[in-house]
Amino acid sequence: MSTNISAHDYNNISITILDSAVAEAKGAVCLDGSPPAYYHAKGFGDGANNWFLYLEGGGWCISDEDCAVRLTDRSGSSKYKPKSVYFGQNKSQNQTENPDFYNWNRVYVGYCDCSSYMGDVELKTNVTRRGARVFNAIMDDLLAKGMSNAENAILSGGSAGGLGAMLHCDGFSELLPNAKRVKCISDSGFFIHAKHLPGADKRAEYYANVSAYHGIRVDSLPSSCTSRMDETLCLLPENIIRDIKTPLFIVETAFDQYQLALNYFSNESTWWNCTNNIEVCTPSQLQTIKDYGVALRQTLQEISDTTSVGIFVHPCFRHGHFYEKSGWEGSFILGDKTIAQAVGDWFFDRASFQVIDYDNELPRFRNCSKFIASSYI
Questions:
Q1: Which has the higher per-residue pLDDT, 304 or 211?
Q2: Which residues belong to the active site?
Q3: pTM of this structure
């Protein structure tokens, strides 16, 4: 049984607490054992049978101690999720703001497992790691509420949720065998290994720890990847992108604020200042930024011959796009298109889109839409 709390207006969407998912038959719970949750705005008109799902992000945790701090906030518990959320941008019901998807069923899936919706540990302790069950339980509920009749569907996500959207992409497509189109979108979820840059071993070790701690099953990863390399490296998008059969659109910046500023490439504590004002960056930081931009672009260029993949890589410092106007219909323009226009054309097969900005050796701060950093990655 789901618990609903009434919304105040058409874009302020009430939470659905999926109490039925807690039963042992499913055992789908957040880190703290609370039920999973999502927000659903029903489609209408010719969008009534179309579905746009967005997987919230929130980083990862890799130990009981690391996860314990998540038990009392929204990244590890549905108890702290807002009772309603405002649906804007790619989830907006405003046709001007969201012309291609405004009347679809729009679903915002709450993140509370810290494993990119991939964990599956049977043992239930004070930290319960069952992200894959959370994903499956929510999909089951949405299928029962009409998604099984979907004509068009998109699975998207941001950051850790963007990685989850990639990892679940083909499985999501298999849930909708009768749909006309099923595609996936990753927003700032392309975390790179960058084997030739400093810290590569540390990055590989981190994802190995995510996999081990959360019990990510080998059979939940593409066999074509796990058969040719260590399975833990199959959490890295560059190693699975060619194994994803469902069409996928990648939205990234060449200079990801999270990957740079939160010590993904460096242990320096001054990175937040640098990523907010390039004039205070040290020569070493500037070189790291340049090297990262080259590595990200090269990694995506290598898969650009895959025609079903859409790519939008701009030069502005940020992390995450779909939660605000400046990352959707008010975004930086590439190929004469905003992100909203590029995604819409790609999804409806009006035009392919693969544009990677190569003009900027360092990130742009001017002539970029304003960006307010998200609290949840």
A1: 211
A2: 159, 256, 319
A3: 0.93
